[in-house]
Amino acid sequence: MIAITLPDGSVKQFEAGVTPMDVAKSISEGFARNVISAAFNKVTVETSTPLTQDGNLVLYTWKDDQGKKAFWHSSAHILAQALEQLYPNIKLTIGPAIENGFYYDVDFGDTTLSDKDLKEIETKMLEIARGKHEFSIRETSKAEALDYYKKQGNEYKVELIENLEDGTITFCDHDDFTDLCRGGHIPNTGIVKAIKLMSIAGAYWRGDENNKQLTRVYGISFPKQKELTEYLELLEEAKKRDHRKLGKELELFTFSQKVGQGLPLWLPKGAALRERLENFLKKAQKKAGYEMVVTPHIGHKELYLTSGHYQKYGADSFQPILTPHEGEEFLLKPMNCPHHCEIFKTKPWSYKDLPKRFAEFGTVYRYEQSGELHGLTRVRGFTQDDAHIFCTPDQLDTEFKKVIDLVLYVFGSLGFDNFTTQVSLRDPDKPEKYIGNPELWEKAEAAIISAVKDKELDYVIEEGEAAFYGPKLDFMVKDALGRSWQLGTIQVDYTLPERFELEYKGSDNEMHRPVMIHRAPFGSMERFIAILLEHTGGNFPLWLMPEQVAILSLSEKYEKYSQKVLNLLENDEIRALTDNRNETIGKKIREAEMNKIPYMLIVGEQEEQDGTVSVRKHGEGDIGTMPLETFSELIQDAIKAESKEFNV
RNA sequence: GCCGAUGUAGCUCAGGGGUAGAGCGUUUCCUUGGUAAGGAAGAGGUCAUGGGUUCAAUUCCCAUCAUUGGCUCCA
After folding, report:
1. How is the cofactor bound, in the record's words (predicted)?
2. For the sheet containing A621-627, what is the strand order?
3. How many CA atoms lie within 13 A of A5 on its CB side?
4. How far apart are CA A528 and CA A276, in angstroms?
5. Is strand B within 7 Å of residue A381 (CB)?
6. ipTM of model
7. Which residue is nearest to nucleotide B25 (CA to C1')?
8. Stretch A209-228: mean pLDDT
9. Which of A156, A244, A456, A472 has a 20 to 30 A CA-CA distance from A549?
């Protein structure tokens, strides 16, 4: 007999050789029907794996992440089988479960797969699924496994197996299909009821662009057709919130092929929104002791040689600009920090002067690969809400935490309540990717981790994600399509002060090197506004709205009164517009609603006589008639209610 | 940059070897209205660009450019 401990702490005795599914059945038949995966002593096992010793067993259903993982991983096997049946000479490589579904990377040889083929593959997959084939795991020797794939001429699987230890190699079989696999499947293919293949994409073998490009088929599957339908509806919903679509509809920004790809053009409403965001941050930064500086859009090549950016990114950047006669080389500014370092150098500093905090909304230009451009989130010219803090090593901890406070204030003011943070450290295996001495790196990394702990942020540590000159703390949020984007960033840098030979005089009358903090709460104005658009679906906080009030006259007869209402609101610094067109009120309301204008004021004969407005709120409808002054107070109070002050 | 898809009116999109269509928007006229589309008429397109096949190309083929889903990259 063996003792199986369940997650609730209860311990049950079973015959050795009992399977997780048997245990599930012993709890209840109904529960067992939903169990699709299991972990024994924290190791993923099949639901049919015999258990031979005491241990902790966790049973997973579709509701658990682990269950979904097993479900989608198993679906990838079904996909592979369908592909093999339809395209006999292909070479399978890897096919994992991902956050939303699964994919399989396949070498199709000379065949090209297109979207039209997906339907046929889906049909084949459903046919296989309906066969209710059981998944079973079988151990094999390394030699046998190698032999199997060498015979097939599948060099990818051979490469995978060569990197595995003998004795740990398993195959998974279902129906007549076999694949190298470490396990974690659902009991049988019949549990997969709904399948949708989403897209085809190219993907490099092992993620290395020097390797052969394979064809990746993305799909998702569900235990019920209804869940698939809901998922597809969710995707539709996400599309409606896409910042590229909303940006066009709300006339915020555009792109022009003639101006160049990745170079956004801000339309009046978008520019106004941007300006308001900038002013919001400027106000908080002023309180926090920042001073604004301004630097040019280009800089001498020498500047970036000193900073190290040229060596690191020069080759992949826009090519240097040559002056006509002297042949001097200038670069489009890819970073503001070298300029700010030169500002720091304009005069000698005492430790009593520090910290110095230089801030700039600095527009930078970077050559991003054409395939990488994406709306406003990945562009070639963008404006950073940049600042650099030059401080003594003693001040680092305090300054870093102050920056965290500022970032949290910004996020809180804009409704980003769900964010995570990432501490990005060096890749210990690739020291050549970084500049600066390892001791300083350690100091910087330790400073960030301690600040994050003190501030009780929810964080993950990612090795190898640091900037080349220093470690960083990034703030990430998710967009409407579930993609994670980096917003704010705070970086500790001992290296640039070294390279620019920055100094201050200490209390000991000796010269010392300051520490630098790079920081940008928004990250870039472009990206931030994109994410804000998707986050709010275009319903920005009232204080940011390009147009807060639409005054809709019932007919042209009330044009004069609507103009009067507009003037009075503008006196109270409320952004309003009038709509006196020869259209019905229903149409004017509809358009204002679609333009997401927060308040609509309907004015007609009654209102003109009484000096009132009939107020309609976006998304809510009629909220009644009131004196104009009352409405003005109402909206001003609403704006005040959502604007928090930044307190240092 | 690489692999796939897409590019038709200002916008959203249909069409298809014989030089183009809808809805919305826009213009003009009628209508002067009470909380999500009042009515009528008109204007508007070298069908992304450049080649090729063909009696004939917007349609088929190739290339380029842009957009897009991924991969790689991201100071």
Report:
1. Binds 1 zinc ion per subunit.
2. A576-579, A549-553, A599-603, A612-617, A621-627
3. 7
4. 13
5. no
6. 0.93
7. A591
8. 93
9. A244
